[in-house]
């Protein structure tokens, strides 16, 4: 029964993602008939192959990374509020990116690298600050992440206010825009997605075990802290690489895992693939809506994911509290 439910859900999400992908290739500032898309792909026309297809690929990869990262973080902390944007990863990457954009405006090529380093550094600070004798405790990790994230957000706001006249590009980046993304960005991102998802699936048994209380986990002979650290590093790598390429697209890692859990249950072997498909569909849809809602103005995908994700997240909280 569970396998059939997982299979039907996965097929349905794949079809949904395919529909969104076709619409994303077709619509934009200039509409392309479906009959011409295949011709342009094989003919090497610039509009689809050079601009829209890499942007779609980035949306899919970013959605996968953020959703799987959120599912891992929620699993290892046993906290449905844990996500890359809550535990400091997104804020750290955003702070480093804002420094490059505002203080070194001629160093745009360093932006992805700086954002990645900032995200990893923020995660390292959270881990070090939440470490106690005997290892990291899930609740302390989540609370420390919120504190560190708040601190980085305060510094970002300070820089934006100080350099207000030249902060428009930084503001767009902070909202998670996929504008002007190219195949070069795809090449930088896909290895992280592939490696991170593979490690997460291989460690799904450990992720399932970490959702139990620690005494039970230790009783079955598992090295709790080593497993938690390995999975945390995987989640950070997935989220940091996504932030480095696309900016701080929020709510994906927060909202998608609970929805995936409602669809296929909490077994990570099924949860992670469904979360990846949901994340890819959500970011792709947000980017599509951002391009077609008010052309030629583009609304950053991060704003749309927040508008889509916030009501559902409020609904999930309401249901959990009412129970």
Features:
single chain, 323 residues, mainly alpha, ABC transporter involved in vitamin B12 uptake, BtuC, two-stranded antiparallel sheet, 77% helix, membrane
Number of strands: 2
Beta strand %: under 5%
- Biggest pleated sheet: 2 strands, antiparallel
CATH overall fold name: ABC transporter involved in vitamin B12 uptake, BtuC
Query: What is the percent of helical residues?
Result: over 70%
Shape: globular
Q: How do the SSEs run, as a string of H and E? A: HHHHHEEHHHHHHHHH
Which architecture name does CATH use? Orthogonal Bundle
User: What is the overall number of helices?
Assistant: 14
Radius of gyration over alpha carbons?
A: 20 Å
Q: Which strand order spans the largest sheet, edge to edge or round the barrel?
A: 1-2
Low-confidence stretches: none
Distance between the termini: 26 Å
Task: Report the structural category.
Answer: mainly alpha
Number of domains: 1
Mean pLDDT across the residues is 86
CATH class wording: Mainly Alpha
Furnish the topology, listing elements before pairings.
Blueprint: H1 2-26, H2 34-43, H3 46-77, H4 89-103, H5 111-130, E1 131-132, E2 135-136, H6 138-162, H7 168-174, H8 183-202, H9 204-210, H10 214-219, H11 224-246, H12 252-264, H13 268-292, H14 301-322
Antiparallel strand pairs: 1-2
Helix pairs in contact: 1-3, 1-13, 3-8, 3-11, 3-12, 3-13, 4-5, 4-6, 4-7, 4-11, 5-6, 5-11, 8-11, 12-13, 12-14, 13-14
Transmembrane segments: 52-73, 85-104, 110-129, 141-165, 189-208, 229-251, 301-321
InterPro entries: ABC_BtuC-like, ABC_transptr_permease_BtuC
Subcellular location: Cell membrane
